[in-house]
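Request:
Um, any thoughts?
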Amino acid sequence: MWKFATASLALVSSLAFAGPKVEFETTIGAFTVELNQEKAPVSAENFLKYVEDGSYEGTIFHRVIPGFMAQGGGFDTNMNQKQTYAPIKNEASNGLKNQTASIAMARTNDPNSATRQFFINLVDNNFLDYDQRPPGYAVFGQVIQGFDVIQAMANKPTHTVGRYADVPVEAIIIKKVTLQP
């Protein structure tokens, strides 16, 4: 009885907070993220624009730092920056934390400069949270399947390309991005 109740509670809990799911197929494997539209509506909507227009396909993870994060979505395989929509409002005060497997918006020093680039936290990076370092970095979802693929990125050798450091030597290319039904 207890086992059934726990399983039922977990199912109800996951359904109550279920958001859009997006699968990424990369040259080293696939992973799926679930977006939190309730707490990060602006970031989730922005991310979905790039998913729906197909422009994440053919981009790379251009910055991978073991023990920190993997960043992608903004450059093609020749390190050319991709076109963006207008920058969005920073939602880092939404209560979501930069914990292991969370996905957040990358930005410049301007808190409201996030466009298409995102990063996935390889570890808990609480120092990126709003309450630790205002204005913080806005988390808008989490990896729910295939986190081992993200972890594998951190084992790949990196180098510097022009002014960009921590670029994987062998490109980690986003081949396909699919909004799950």
